[in-house]
Amino acid sequence: MSMSSAVSNFSNMTDLLRSVITRIYAESPYLLHVLYALQRKFLHISDEAVREVAAHLDLPTSQVDAVVEFYAFFHKIPRGRYDILFSNCTSCGYMAGGVDLMAMFGRRLGIAVGKTRGDGLVSMDQTSCIGMCDHGAALLVNGMPITSLDGPMIDSIAALVEAATPLEDWPAEWFYVEGNIRVSGLLLKDDLSEGISLRAMLALGAVGSLSEIIQSGLRGRGGAGFSTGMKWQLCRDAQGAAHYVVCNADEGEPGTFKDRVLLHSYADSLFEGMTVCAFAIGAKQGYLYLRAEYRYLLSHLQSVLTRRRELGLLGVGILGQPGFSFDIDIVVGAGAYICGEESALIESLEGKRGIPRVRPPFPVTHGYLGQPTVVNNVETFIAAAHIVLRGSAWFRAVGTGKSVGSKILSISGDCAAPGIYEYPFGVTIRQVLDDCGAKDVLAVQIGGPSGTLINRAEFDRRLDFDDLSTGGSLMIFNQARDLLAVIVNFAHFFAHESCGFCTPCRVGTTLLKNGLDKIAGGHGTQYDLDEMQRIAALVKYRSHCGLGQTAANPILDGLQRFPQAFEQRLVHSDEPHFDLDAALEEARQVSHRDDTAAHIK
Amino acid sequence: MSADTKQNTITIDGQEIPFLAGQTIMDAALAAGVYIPHLCHRQGLTPHGSCKLCVVDIASKSVTACTMPAMAGQQISNNTPALNEARKTITQMLFIEGNHICPSCEKCGDCTLQAMAYHLGMLDGHFPQFFQRREVDASHPTVMLDRDRCILCELCVRASREVDGKNVFDIAGRGTNAHLIVNSTSGKLVDSDLETSDMAAHICPVGAILIKKSGYKVPIGQRTFDLHKVSEIGLEKTILTKVRQPDE
Amino acid sequence: MSKIRIATTSLAGCFGCHMSFLDMDERLVALLEHVEFNRSPLTDIKHCGPCDIGLIEGAVCNAENVHVLREFRDNCKILIAVGACAINGGVPAMRNHFNLRECLEEAYVNGVGVENPQIPNDVELPLLLDKVHPIHDVVRVDYYLPGCPPSADEFLKILGDLLAGKAPSLPYNLLHYD
Q1: Which residues of B touch A336 (CB under 8 A)?
Q2: Which of C100, C127, C135 is the mutation pick for testing A, counting most A CBs within 10 A?
Q3: For the structural domain made of A484-567, what CATH number should be given?
Q4: What residue segments make up the domains of chain B, in order of their start?
Q5: Angle between the B81-97 and B112-119 helix axes, to the nearest 10 degrees?
Q6: What residues of chain C, 139 to 178, have a C-beta less than 8 Å from chain B?
Q7: A91, A432, C15, C29: which has the fewest Cβ within 10 Å?
Q8: C-alpha distance from A509 to closest chain C C-alpha (Å)
């Protein structure tokens, strides 16, 4: 290539980058959206692209670079034209009935995990739970989910990729995701018809609406259980140039998929709830932060928003109410579990890495752009919409003690009927297990890996904020499961998702992962087990945010309730911290030796 | 003691300490001459709360002293065997995560991480090394960046933004892949607007950011932590980093 | 009363810790009233017999280091990691910044002044591990004596404590990594 053609190619690429950036930024002025568009178009985000984005958005190059390297769905090295991501969740992961579907796919196409094939056609990797746990093994192909995978489907997908068949020509039914609603309670009986809650809200007034929420006793459905009414009141009372409503639809906890169904089938209820909140706190702008794994729901959600604007339910002067203007933007994440933490989510909304903020101050006073902000779960907003419509007494009539109303569960794992179940608070685990057809249960993970792992003796415990609190995930493991493998899976998840901000979580989650791998690999000793206990306690008590504070739960619960799962793998002699013979492999290759002295037992 | 002053005190290890509205536990402690171990904190810069050396206990709750507002009546445990053991473990984590080879580092003797390890009686790194491969950037004429020694405290990030009025450094990557990056088109220090006189060039508590041609000028026995304990240096109210010009 | 038996060795180290041990000078005479040396460069005894204390200088960088270290662990009641290299890899661990092939090619193929370039492959030569490790990555270690090198005072303090039947500890002024 001559110098002049190299220069002209360079200039063409620069022009192309600039035109894409300009167009996308005009459509949707969010750094994450601009980067997503570049990733899709160019299959990676080059250094030049980083510089162009920084220039166009007037951001430091380092900030754009930092964001690209933080989120799992952005890449500096090109991905394939078909980018395949297998979920590695214990419920919707690539291990299906003892068969490694990812390895099978890799063999069919001649590709290794984490790599892009030489011809650029296809890349393959694993990714954290994609929320398809009620459908068996699942993957994302260029962001579109395909569920219920098995060997024959892997063959078919590999053939379609090899033939470079456009996704539009793949079997349409593959991309259909069933809702699987099994038990409906307070909230799932119906999607609220357009505007019905808003009319009730206007009749009550802002103070009256807020009062209903407070009196209802509604608590946040993300798992922490903070009083929703109090949160709204604190935000309303906070001084600020603007107030914001943010819906946390970054449903990343493995085993949770209720928001997927709510976003798909109850979007009007959700947007009614967000609008009620805006009215109560005096917000003009709301955001739905959607996890990247649910990007396939984006066009549906956009169409609902468009319809609501046409009906006067969003925009200026909602339902003819002078002075009440509110609209909602959807911002899509890019693969980071930590962004489910509300302050990390706000950072992400602001176009930064998802690093949890120092608290206090809390988002209700210093949230999005430093302004008072309510961040609530999808389910919480839907509950609020119902409460304003039907009254706090209607809501309080269900539930138990300080846990009023219902809880929507995502049930997956070893049971006959995985799916969505809505129960009054206070339901026992035994009841839930009976209803979903779970047999020979060994253990149940309540609230996902960050929650609580319980054993058979605890099945009379109840789901509520005072006993077993849950954001909605309930994963069932039967007697045939290798529980240590499950705990190892969770340890890998947390080490992968740790944001890296604080020392105990950043280093500790990786030490836990490595230590558990050693034990599971048959090289662990009692010393290693004691170390796991000690590190786990440190990570739990000394980490900066909820991720680190819960990351060690599966290990601590496992050691307490299922010690034999660990102990039966231990060896009773001194073991090195690493595989000595494997550590000689590189030297054997370089020196072409394989004699006895070239090995260590 | 009058009721008024009573309202404005916290108690650290049984010692009553006054505080002003807006102060953190760390601010109040340092003002009173009470040392709480810390690495990522420096008076005058926005508190960060990431290293977790300054964890203290209030009742049985773990709190980060440099970011937690002081509130009247807080009963705080600080210098206890259990907390110092946790701090030692955290320090060991920092050692094995990076590549800290003290004998070959010109920051040796002036390094706060090393002095912290001495303070906590750390004899070894304890955990298996992570063996991370991190890039060295020697492009700048007067400042050296050796990421092997970076502990991600972000003191340089904050000093550049808040004191130097620039934006030279940032952190990229996630989890153990987190690493210091430079804000320039090439990602190299030489193309950034860092100058030798910037606080960001001098604030590094470890040997990650070094002024070139200044190493080993102070003989062993005369270096900062040969003469002082970290618990003395950590109480200094002014920014204490030695500014040694390369032409000195 | 029988003497305390001590063995010493240097793995991937520079023998600087041994030199520093000898810096005890005349105090060594008094020490020798209580201790005797088994395997050590000081005695030229080639293999370790049953000992009370093993002092290990240096990091673990090759297969032979592993064998020697295991011999010490098997024969010594108390094993002490001596110096920066034994404790965290030290200066030899600076090669961990590169992969092994790069190191060997630089030394034996591409290096300035290399004649007859080839990477040695004689079976007599111990193979290098892909990374240089501290000794506690391979065997259980009882005590650590940091420093590069630890001073003679540190050796005396830690051995004195052990001879007195106490758990060894270093005062603040003797604790240093350089």
Answers
A1: 174
A2: C127
A3: 1.20.1440.230
A4: 3-79, 100-230
A5: 140
A6: 141, 143-146, 148, 170, 172, 175-178
A7: C29
A8: 19
Fold of A403-480: Ubiquitin-like (UB roll) (3.10.20)
Q: What CATH number is associated with residue C51?
A: 3.40.50.700
- Domain B3-79 carries which CATH code? 3.10.20.740
- Model confidence band, residue B7 (pLDDT cutoffs 50, 70, 90): low
Contacts of C129 in chain A (CB under 8 A): 580, 583-584, 587
Nearest Cα residue to B50 out of A508, A505, A368, A354: A505
Q: What is the DSSP letter of A362?
A: P
Q: CB of C59 within 8 A of CB of C86? A: yes
Identify the band that residue A5 occupies on the pLDDT scale cut at 50, 70 and 90: very low
- Establish if B49 touches chain A: CB-CB under 8 angstroms: yes
Query: Model confidence over A252-276: pLDDT tens digits?
Result: 999 999 999 999 999 999 999 999 9
Residues of C in contact with A591 (CB under 8 A): 104, 119-121, 127
The listed CATH number (1.10.260.40, 3.40.47.10, 3.65.10.10, 3.40.50.11540) that belongs to domain A183-397: 3.40.50.11540
CATH number of B100-230: 3.30.70.20
- Rg (Cα) of chain B, in Å, rounded? 19
Query: Longest Cα pair distance anywhere in chain C, in angstroms?
Result: 58
- Name the burial class of residue A269, with classes exposed (0-12), middle (13-18) and buried (19+) by CB atoms within 10 angstroms of its CB: buried
CB-based contact A597 C128, cutoff 8 Å: no
| Residue C52 phi, psi (nearest 5) | -85, -40
Domain count, chain C: 1
pLDDT tens digit sequence for A228-257: 999 999 999 999 999 999 999 999 999 999
The predicted model scores a pTM of 0.96
Each residue's pLDDT tens digit, A38-96: 999 999 999 999 999 999 999 999 999 999 999 999 999 999 999 999 999 999 999 98
